[in-house]
Amino acid sequence: MIHEGNELTFRRATIEDAKMLFDWRNDPETRAMSRDTSVLLMDNHVAWLTRRLALSEPGLYIVEIDKIPVGTVRLDQDEISYAVSPSHRRKGIAEKMLNRAFELFGPKIAEVKRENTASVKVAERAGHIIKFID
Q: pTM of the entire structure?
């Protein structure tokens, strides 16, 4: 578990985050719980990230605790997507991330696979709306 004294912050993603986000996205557990379970290619990822960051409001954030990246949150209109870095899972970070996202952006729709019960519970407790995906 993370301690209450740890400062959790959201910062906008940058192109310098490309490799880290790529590695997190291609983690087998992350892929298994994602809408798209395929392995991502770096060229495609960098092209997507470049396009995303060029938007007036990219809605892509790196979540840090005491300046250490621990996860990511992406907002697409009324939807929220999130992932905790593989090395920081099962420490209570997802719930803290989603609570903070609710405070900053209001309730969002979290598309979650039905079998990802931990993520369903965390998103519901944070006040987000669950939409199940297959």
A: 0.93
